[in-house]
Amino acid sequence: MKLYKEVGLVIWDVNPDIISIGPITIRWYGLFFALSFVLGYQIMIHIFRKEKRSEDDLNDLIWYMVLGTVLGARLGHCFFYAPEYYLKNPIEILMVWKGGLASHGAAIGILTSLYLFIRKKKNYTYLWLLDRIVITVALGGFFIRMGNLFNSEIFGRETNLPWAFVFVSVDNIPRHPTQIYEALAYLSIFIILFVIYNKKFNKLKEGFLFGWFLIFVFGFRFLVEFLKENQSLFENNLPLNMGQLLSIPFILAGIWILLRKENDSINSKKIES
Known about the structure:
Layout: E1 2-4, E2 9-12, E3 17-21, E4 24-27, H1 28-50, H2 55-81, H3 83-88, H4 103-120, H5 126-150, E5 165-167, E6 174-175, H6 178-200, H7 208-224, H8 242-272
Parallel strand pairs: 2-5
Antiparallel strand pairs: 1-2, 3-4, 5-6
Helix pairs in contact: 1-2, 1-5, 2-4, 4-5, 5-6, 5-7, 6-7, 7-8
């Protein structure tokens, strides 16, 4: 990486590969992806011990999460952004190493995997799990976007701002480093959710953290998409790009969850009085 002080641009020319040994290549994206699960697991250990929950259950939960995240993210990319190509080349859906993961698909995969988990583990409620899982998911979002930065992908539109990045492997145009914008936003959301949880975990209404997570994460995602280049050509003909269209239902779901829980709380107080 070179910093051109006279124009204030960051010339981003980072090799996405950390090291290659024979046919094996370790990439920055893979490292960040693995870190998201390793640190997420440590956070969940803290949560399960804090609430005296079974760590054996947590070990099972992690497998559900890993499979739900990877399968959901991959299928989301294939069918949200390039359905025609992958329907014609279905074997390439399995070629994860070629790149292509979608956060909205990951969200759907996680929601599905947690539902399957509570079908097996009857001593957990869906919203209880979601309130805690989203803390680690927000942190995971930070690592994933850092991986995108090292891959020089999911970048922004042209800009003349002093912190613009020139992605050498793409072109010589100064662009918004939207990967960094999102990474910092998700890291901030993680800190907020984690602090609230640690201070009030035994007083929080179920769905509170999950509802705000949906509003914060997908609300920011909706806004930052205005600064991004579209990922697929067909998005150029849409009033909003695919990332924005997919974010709207999650934002509305977050608002609905918070309003419903608030309404339930008001009704319960009326009954008690």
